[in-house]
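hey
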């Protein structure tokens, strides 16, 4: 539709219709036989509030959404199509590894391709907008939603943010093409830093920290063209984001230039009352629209209050018009006025959903994202000629996609046992359950509750496992936390493995010295004891539909493990937050030096995490040359190149993830000890060498100075290039401005 026609449409809409566009409810409330129950009913939502809602969320399926769309459009006074939204976070039916694992791939181009596939599947099933990517930088693994983040580096998170947006929206951003979806960058801003890692808690971050660490991935998503942004649930420095003109209208819109649609988080507008920011739903609606929230997701505030607020003159109608214009513009960009189904349909679904190409790529992404944390005596890769016992609750588990894979079908998931068998690795493999994932506990999910008791055959299972371990040459322990122990509303204070799994590991390690532990988790766990009991440790996070297949490929050496730590694995939860880009102190501690007192350290544990950012082993063995720089000085506007030669001195072909870090030696504000600024992947055969060449631009040197200017300060910089954030392989240059 032309802009002129769209404008005419807006002008012809009643106030009630316009407010409707700003309301979002769950899809089920617009189905023929809808009844409102549960928390929405408790919050007072009625079917009449939903009648004119401009968008729905949470359901999918081409036929189902088509029926809703047809009925809705027929009844709508201007026959305006609905927007169909849902959380498609790391895949629709073909579920890719969780975003934290995708971040660990350090390969945005692969992630872009994966999200293109996710969009194709979801769009074929009738969805138009996904609430993704979550670009919240994270430092606290107690927070359950770290699984949805890409990690602790602003640079890496930014590259992943762009990859996600381009994957969903296409490199040209033409949303009208079938198979494309609108992205929704979330959560603006600071949601990744809830105090004490407790879900929904407020965030306290200085402006400097927000700008230096938390905003860059958001800016990257905006620059990549994300069509929507979701302001965060929580308060930042005392202001609920949903009600903050400073955060939404001034920072997001005026300063960062975001022109798309903003959508509140689930019931966040209504929650302003519980937060103590609004006296009632009326004030909450007023605060939210004034802050700049276009769509109210699942609260009664806009549906009930906005019309009255405008009629009484308390809210200017102009604010409603601006919001509705943005919503209609998005519908138009998606081409919904021409095709309200956006190319979806059962035929398209059949062609794309879980197709071989997507499944093969998901399998590759598993290998690219699992992190080999330890591999003593090169116990991995396994030999298929030797006897291997696979033990543990994750051997046969199909619950490996994580709590955000809301459209997954567990039957599609390839278990580890199946991956081993179907990969042709299983001639000498035997499998035992060992123990359940949890014992004597209860976990809650979205409308699900799982209760774990103590099994009667518990001792028998352990006995079988120990017998298998005794007889085998090597043991693969498939252990992990439960999928409902990570994700939204799943903060944990203790981030070790569940007790009975740990006990089984201890016992197995006493009878077999070749233990390889495969750890399934939604977060970096405290793996200290796991590591002590194992010769090898492979972190696989929640690997998705093709998990078992990709993990088997890595265990048996058909693929080299490709992942690197994108969020530090703490030595102990007591160190949290522990991350690579912390600031230099005036009293640095040198662990290699003599015993020191008045320095920045713990008396009872190391400062460093167990596995630091960037770290990850492969089946190759890489030697780095020293860093060569194209010049020793750099003037404003110039570009330097930094290069290393890397040689694979091992016996297997592998990918090396070459990382470039910068350190600003002296500045007006204290600087991180290391900042990742570039990654190059080299695929090298045994004996082969390759060169990694990086460009260093002035932009990469910029910092927020003490007066909040973003600029490059003249002075000395060190460039480090190596295989993880601890590298000392560096060279210096002077930036002269
Ligand atoms: C709450 C989550 O915080 C948000 O990320 C998600 O998109 C919405 N629920 C909708 O499911």
């Amino acid at each position: 539709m032309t802009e002129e026609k769209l404008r005419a449409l807006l002008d012809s809409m009643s106030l009630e219709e316009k407010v409707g566009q700003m309301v979002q409810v769950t899809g089920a409330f617009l189905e023929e036989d809808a009844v409102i129950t549960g928390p929405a009913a408790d919050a007072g939502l009625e079917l009449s509030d939903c009648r004119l809602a401009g968008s729905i969320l949470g359901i999918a399926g081409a036929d189902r959404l088509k029926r809703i769309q047809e009925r809705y459009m027929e009844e709508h006074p201007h026959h305006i199509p609905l927007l169909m939204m849902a959380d498609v976070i790391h895949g629709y039916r073909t579920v890719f590894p969780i975003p934290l694992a995708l971040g660990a791939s350090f390969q945005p181009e692969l992630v872009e391709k994966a999200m293109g596939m996710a969009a194709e599947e979801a769009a074929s099933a009738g969805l138009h907008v996904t609430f993704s990517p979550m670009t919240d930088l994270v430092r606290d693994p107690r927070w359950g939603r770290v699984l949805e983040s890409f990690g602790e580096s602003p640079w890496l998170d930014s590259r992943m943010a762009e990859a996600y947006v381009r994957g969903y929206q296409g490199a040209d951003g033409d949303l009208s093409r079938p198979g494309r979806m609108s992205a929704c960058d979330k959560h603006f801003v600071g949601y990744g830093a809830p105090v004490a890692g407790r879900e929904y808690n407020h965030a306290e971050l200085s402006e400097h920290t927000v700008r230096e660490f938390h905003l860059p991935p958001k800016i990257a998503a905006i620059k990549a063209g994300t069509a929507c942004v979701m302001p965060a649930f929580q308060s930042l420095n005392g202001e609920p984001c949903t009600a903050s003109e400073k955060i939404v209208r001034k920072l997001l819109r005026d300063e960062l230039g975001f022109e798309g649609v903003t959508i509140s988080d689930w019931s966040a507008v209504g929650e302003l009352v519980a937060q103590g920011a609004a006296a009632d739903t009326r004030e909450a609606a007023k605060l939210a629209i004034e802050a700049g929230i276009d769509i109210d997701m699942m609260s009664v505030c806009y549906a009930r209050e906005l019309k009255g607020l405008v009629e009484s003159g308390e809210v200017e109608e102009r604010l409603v018009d601006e919001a509705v214009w943005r919503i209609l513009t998005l519908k138009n960009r998606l081409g919904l006025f021409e095709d309200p189904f956006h190319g979806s349909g059962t035929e398209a679904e059949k062609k794309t959903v879980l197709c071989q190409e997507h499944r093969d790529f998901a399998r590759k992404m598993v290998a690219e994202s699992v992190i080999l944390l330890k591999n003593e005596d090169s116990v991995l890769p396994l030999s298929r000629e030797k006897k291997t016992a696979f033990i543990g609750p994750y051997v046969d588990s199909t619950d490996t996609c994580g709590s955000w894979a809301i459209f997954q079908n567990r039957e599609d998931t390839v278990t580890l046992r199946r991956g081993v068998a179907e990969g042709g690795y299983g001639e000498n493999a035997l499998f035992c359950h060992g123990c359940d994932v949890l014992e004597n506990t209860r976990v809650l999910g979205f409308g699900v509750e799982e209760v774990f008791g103590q099994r009667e055959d518990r001792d028998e299972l352990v006995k079988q496992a120990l017998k298998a371990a005794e007889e085998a040459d090597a043991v693969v322990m498939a252990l992990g936390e439960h999928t409902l122990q990570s994700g939204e509303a799943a903060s944990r204070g203790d981030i070790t493995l569940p007790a009975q799994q740990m006990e089984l590991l201890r016992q197995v390690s006493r009878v077999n010295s070749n233990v390889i532990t495969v750890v399934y988790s939604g977060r970096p766990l405290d793996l200290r004891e796991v590591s002590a009991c194992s010769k090898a440790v492979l972190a696989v996070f929640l690997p998705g539909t093709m998990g078992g297949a990709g993990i088997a490929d890595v265990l048996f050496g058909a693929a080299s493990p490709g992942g690197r730590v994108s969020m530090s694995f703490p030595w102990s939860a007591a160190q949290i937050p522990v991350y690579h880009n912390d600031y230099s102190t005036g009293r640095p501690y040198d662990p290699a030096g003599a015993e020191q007192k008045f320095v920045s350290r713990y008396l009872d544990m190391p400062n460093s995490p167990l596995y630091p950012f960037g770290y990850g082993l492969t089946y190759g063995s890489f030697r780095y040359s020293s860093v060569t720089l194209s010049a020793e000085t750099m003037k404003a506007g110039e570009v330097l190149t930094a290069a290393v030669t890397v040689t694979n001195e091992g016996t297997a072909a592998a990918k090396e993830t070459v990382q470039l870090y910068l350190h600003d030696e002296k500045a007006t504000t204290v600087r991180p000890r290391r900042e990742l600024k570039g990654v190059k992947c080299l695929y090298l055969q045994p004996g082969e060498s390759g060169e990694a060449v990086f460009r260093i631009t002035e932009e990469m040197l910029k910092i927020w100075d003490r007066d909040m200017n973003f600029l490059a300060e003249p002075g000395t910089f060190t460039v480090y290039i190596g295989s993880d954030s601890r590298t000392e392989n560096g060279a210096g240059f002077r930036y002269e401005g």
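The longest helix spans residues 108-124. The CA atoms of residues 282 and 624 lie 63 Å apart.
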